[in-house]
Design brief:
It contains eleven helices and 15 strands. By secondary structure, it is an alpha/beta fold. It folds into two domains: 163 residues, Alpha-Beta Complex (Quinone Oxidoreductase, Chain A, domain 1), CATH 3.90.180.10; 146 residues, Rossmann fold. Strands 3, 4, 5, 6, 7, 14 and 15 form a seven-stranded mixed sheet that branches. Strands 10-9-8-11-12-13 form a six-stranded parallel sheet, sandwiched between helices. The chain has a two-stranded antiparallel sheet with strand order 1-2. α5 links the parallel β8 and β9. Bound molecules: NADP nicotinamide-adenine-dinucleotide phosphate.
C-alpha cells in the first residue's frame, strides 16, 4: 500500500474491482476530506455491469463507487465553517452523482472528499461502523419523504410537532425503511409499516405503531384497519411488489394519494403515468437528490446532529462488520447480493 492513498477502483461498468493507489483528494470549496474508518455497502454498488450503465450512465471510468463513509476530518475546504479538522463525522460520498462524477468523492477509498452539506458530526459514543450505516439510506428516505416532487412532507423538527395523519412505510426493515420510519416520526406522523415477522419488534422500536408482514395474504386489509379513520399522508414503497400494494392501499384510504417508490426504473415511471389517471401520484426516488437540494443540509446539518446526540435518532439497521480492508469490499457486495435482513454490511479500515 502507498501510505494512506489508495482506492478500490472499478475499471469499467462490468469490470473487476481492484485496489490501487490513488491521488489523495484535496478539500475544494464546500468539501471536507475524511480519513475513512468505516464504509457501508449499498445495492447501487452491487449491481452488475449492464444495469450499472442504465442506473448511472454518466459515470466516468475508472470509477470509485461507495456512498457511505464515517471517519475523521483531515482537511476543510473554503466556505466550510461547521466542521473542523479532527471531527468524527459520517458523510454521503457523492462521487457517483451526476453533478459530482468524481473518483475523489467515491466512498471506497482511504481518504475521500465529501460535501460538508451532507456530512454530520457524530457523538463520541456512536462508533464509526455504526455511523457508516446511515448516509445513502438516510438520504434516500429523506428524499422520498421531504422533496417537493416526492411526498413533500414537512421537515423533521425538535421538538416534534405531532400530527394526526399516517405515513405508510412498506419495507421498513430495509436500510432505507429504518430511516423512513424514524424521519416520518420526527416530522410528527404516525407510522404504519411492513416488515418480515422476525423484524416486527425492531421496527416498532424505531417508532412504528403497527407493523404487518408484507408476505401475508391479507396485509392490505390489515394496513387499512391499522390506519383506521385517519388520513394517509403518503407511502414510501420499498421492496419488490411494494408499489402494487401501495397503489391498492392508497385507493382505499383518504389522504394525499402520493407514493414515493424506491425503484427509479422505467416500469415504475410507466405505472406512475397510469396511476395518475386514477388520481394517484407515484414518484421515483433518487437517493442522491439531497446532495444538491435543501433537504440535504436540513437533515444532515440541522436535524441529525442533535437527534443523534440525544439518542432520538438511531443509526439503524445495525452494522455487521465483514472485513477490515478495501479488498474486502467485493466480498461484502457479494454478501449483499445474497440478501440481508435488518442489517448493514460494513468494512472497517485501520
Ligand atoms: N432510489 C434510490 O436512490 C435508492 C437508494 C437506496 C436504495 N434503493 C432501493 O431500495 C431498496 C432497499 O434498499 P436497502 O439498501 O434499504 O435494502 P436492504 O437493507 O438491503 O434490504 C434488506 C431488507 O429487505 C427486506 N425485503 C425483502 N423483500 C422485501 C419485500 N418484497 N418487501 C419489503 N421488504 C422486503 C427484508 O425484510 P425482512 O428481512 O424483514 O423480510 C430485509 O430486511 C432496494 O431495492 C434498493 O435498490 C433505492
Amino acid at each position: 500500500m502507498i501510505d494512506g492513498d489508495e482506492a478500490l477502483w472499478l475499471r469499467s461498468p462490468g469490470g473487476r474491482f481492484e485496489v490501487r493507489s490513488a491521488p489523495r483528494p484535496t478539500a475544494g470549496p464546500g468539501l471536507v476530506v475524511i480519513r475513512v474508518r468505516a464504509i457501508a455497502v449499498n445495492p447501487v454498488d452491487a449491481i452488475g455491469g449492464p444495469l450499472r450503465r442504465i442506473v448511472t450512465p454518466w459515470l466516468r471510468y475508472p470509477a470509485v463507487l461507495g456512498s457511505d463513509v464515517a471517519g475523521e476530518v483531515v482537511a476543510v475546504g473554503d466556505g466550510v465553517t461547521r466542521l473542523r479538522i479532527g471531527d468524527r463525522v459520517l458523510g454521503y460520498a457523492a462521487g457517483q452523482e451526476r453533478i459530482r462524477n468524481s473518483p475523489a468523492e467515491g466512498g471506497f477509498r482511504r481518504y475521500v472528499a465529501v460535501l460538508a452539506r451532507v456530512c454530520t458530526a457524530i457523538p463520541d459514543e456512536v462508533t464509526f461502523e455504526r455511523a457508516a450505516v446511515l448516509p445513502l439510506a438516510l438520504s434516500t428516505a429523506a428524499a422520498g419523504l421531504f422533496e417537493a416532487d416526492q411526498l413533500g412532507l414537512p421537515m423533521p423538527a425538535i421538538p416534534v410537532a405531532p400530527r394526526e395523519d399516517v405515513v405508510l412505510v412498506w419495507g421498513a426493515s430495509t436500510s432505507v425503511g429504518c430511516n423512513a420510519v424514524q424521519l416520518a416520526r420526527a416530522s410528527g406522523f404516525a407510522v404504519v409499516a411492513t416488515a418480515g415477522r422476525r423484524n416486527h419488534e425492531f421496527v416498532r422500536s424505531l417508532g412504528a405503531e403497527a407493523v404487518l408482514d408484507y408476505r401475508d395474504g391479507d396485509v392490505d386489509q390489515r394496513i387499512v384497519e391499522a390506519v383506521g379513520d385517519r388520513r394517509l399522508a403518503g407511502t414510501v414503497a420499498i421492496g419488490s411488489g411494494s408499489l402494487t400494494h401501495a397503489l391498492r392501499i392508497a385507493r382505499r384510504l383518504p389522504g394525499t394519494k402520493r407514493i414515493a417508490s424506491a425503484y427509479p426504473d422505467p416500469i415504475t415511471r410507466a405505472r406512475s403515468l397510469a396511476a395518475r389517471a386514477r388520481g394517484l401520484r407515484v414518484s421515483s426516488i433518487w437517493g442522491g437528490t439531497p446532495v444538491r437540494s435543501a433537504v440535504g443540509p436540513a437533515v444532515f446539518r440541522d436535524y441529525l446532529p442533535p437527534a443523534l446526540e440525544d439518542g432520538r435518532f438511531r443509526a439503524a439497521p445495525g452494522p455487521v462488520v465483514v472485513g477490515a480492508s478495501l479488498g474486502d469490499i467485493p466480498e461484502a457486495l457479494a454478501r449483499l447480493r445474497a440478501g440481508v435482513s435488518a442489517s448493514k454490511l460494513v468494512v472497517t479500515l485501520e
